[in-house]
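Handout, page 2. Input:
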Amino acid sequence: MGSLNIAYPKRTEGSVQDQIAALQRSMRDIIDQLNLADWSAEAVLQEISTGINEDAALKTEKEKKQSAFASLKQLIIKTADFSMENSEQFTKTLQGGYVAKSTFGEYAEKTSQTIEINSKGITQLFDYTAGINSKDERYGVTSRQYVKTGLLFHDENAQPVYGVGVGNISTKTELNGEVIDETQGEVVTVTPGEITFWQQGERIAYLSGKKLHFPSGTLEASGAVLTGTLTAAAGSKLGPWNVTDSSIWYGKSSYGAAGGLYFGTSGLSIGTQCKIDADGVMSLNALKFGNVSVYDALLDLNEKVDELMAYADMMTLSGKDVSMLDLLVGGDGLKITGASSAAYAVDLSSGGAIRITADNGNVYIEANGNYIQIGKSGTITFNADTVDFSFVNNIVGLPTE
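Output:
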């Protein structure tokens, strides 16, 4: 298809007839160019395909040319006198004022709006002045802000960026001639590809490509509900907490370090006294319930368990040799000892009374087949070759002769 360049008709001098003849020649030239051009669908599609299917080398070359164009543009603007050709500009200023007077003082307010329209866009400049004069104090507020629609700026590739810009050039509050509050250089720009917040000419935050970017500063979202994945890269901070590839820590970055809080691949630790390693082994040296140290209580319980185990061994008599068994009953106690030199093998003794009872059945005292039986019916039975009462002074209920 090729490129089609149609030039404007040349201006000629001379009579009206000469100028009409020159215009006719120019029209014939334009018609010849249009007739010779290939306007078929195939040619148009070929032209579009050529523009779209640039390879990487051509793209790189294009970027180089754009960069050179941007640099050359800045150089020309900075070193040459600037003039606007073929441009019309409209400027209109609107003003208003208000004054209120009373016995408490005077309040005055003055506003103006300057509207400037040209080929690059529409700029609305707002000036605001207000003041209070009272007996003791004098307040003053001055503000200059603007709204601009149209060509806002050129990007790094010298491409024009159109949109809407809302800016605060300067807003200042004074009390008796002293500045008590001032903001300036705040701008919000809305363009097709980006919403950007500026302060003092620096881009502090912007929304682009489905992402909200904060090159620096703080994100505060009170009561916000966040869904999806919250990612904090290594080297980030969440409040006082530090983030690494394998842990989150405060104070000290290593597991079990004094004065540090650590949660990571090595385990969980609060200083040196409270630790749970990656294998689940817990160390709680200083843990307390109330004023009782759990560590000391566990040690004491361990000792008590050892004692109970010893008692259990002593009381499990079946199949074991027991040298001594002490059962403390009240303050007197019951002692069963194995005799080593006495005439008896087992000594059952107590400082108080000893009672042997059976809820249902008989009670026996037996030695070598001889026994004394107390039956459940109340009968006492002796089964022995001899019953010796030699040491009994008095047998109740038996005849004494």
